[in-house]
Amino acid sequence: MVHHIVMWKFKPEIEEERKPQLKKDMEKNLSSLVGQVPGLLSVKFVAEPLPSATHDMALVTTMEKPEDIPAYSKHPAHQNVANTYVRPFVTERACLDYED
């Protein structure tokens, strides 16, 4: 199994009152990729990190094998979700991939 963890911060210009709905949209649409993207086994969206966190939200995915990560990144369904619901609103992306 491979885990792909991505964290983001909202862009500074995103108003506080918009953030909860944007997070809900991100979670819904990223979660919908399970069953659409080959090798993607699970998605967990972290919308409410602890105050000690350095980022506003995170995505924790589980995939079958390391080769699934670049395939996921390039998959048209993922690209559509990322370009519509994530990238327009975030900055400071951090990523960690590991195998267990």
From TrEMBL:
InterPro entries: Dabb, Dimeric_a/b-barrel, HS1/DABB1-like. It comes from the Bacteria. SUPFAM superfamilies: Dimeric alpha+beta barrel. Residues 2-98 form the Stress-response A/B barrel domain. Homodimer. PANTHER family: PTHR33178, STRESS-RESPONSE A_B BARREL DOMAIN-CONTAINING PROTEIN. This is Dabb family protein.
